[in-house]
Amino acid sequence: MTDLLTQDSLNIDIRQEASLDDFKSKGFRPILDAIDKMTEGSLRELFIVGGYGFGKTHLANAIHDYYTKRTGRMAISLHLDELIEQDPHATALVGLEMFDLIIIDDLQLVRHSYEWQEGLFHLINRIREHQKQILYLADNPARELQIGLLDLHTRLSLAPMLTLPTHDDVEDRKILLDTILKKKNWRLPDEILDYLLQEGPRNAGDINTVLKHITPLLTRLSRVQIPKKTITEAKNIILRETFMLEIIEHEDLHS
């Protein structure tokens, strides 16, 4: 019997798999156009905004890969959730102007550290002096980041800003879901796939959470015959988990 779900046994780091091909939906078109301008050198700074779970870190890794391969120039990607606690004095920012492109993910976290705010402000000045490029990714626009250093707030506000799509468009969402399933090497029954597409979450992080919950139902099932009871149970799980994720998101927004 062939499993309904198949999955590669290799544990491959997602950063190695990141590709701009994962962002083919029309909602990403303005961002992809801006990235092309960065590779051409006609755009020096870019600020990308997107909520949790909408793929900012995956996009940052994909841009790094695309930029270095397309231009042959040097780029570095910093994920501040990993750095600020480990490096409270922001020494990691020293000398980064040697790179052609600096990508800073989770920028919103600098609000927790005045040292990082100062370090980033001086880095931006050095980048401009050396005519290098910088890309920011954050949960909110610069004006909403609650940054105490006014000069840094001003610098960040000057960068052109684009927002990640929320996948409200069903075609955008289908491309996202197809990409997630392809990376997992999974095939879902059409009825469950359509239901997840219509009634499930809108972002990649939450979609993966829901898939994790329905996986036990579908493992070891034949592709030929899927019990109606299993399909109904999978639909109920999709509804329940999507609802719970929406509650959590609402609580986070008002906390």
From TrEMBL:
Query: Per its record, what are the GO molecular function terms?
Result: DNA replication origin binding
Chain coiled-coil ranges = none
Q: What residue stretches are annotated with the Chromosomal replication initiator protein DnaA ATPAse domain? A: 35-147
Report the InterPro entries cross-referenced here: DnaA_dom (IPR013317), P-loop_NTPase (IPR027417)
Q: Which GO terms describe its cellular component?
A: plasma membrane
- UniProt cross-references to SUPFAM superfamilies, sorted A to Z: P-loop containing nucleoside triphosphate hydrolases
A single GO BP: DNA replication initiation
**Pfam families referenced in this protein's UniProt entry, alphabetically:** Bac_DnaA (PF00308)
- Protein's recorded name: Chromosomal replication initiator DnaA
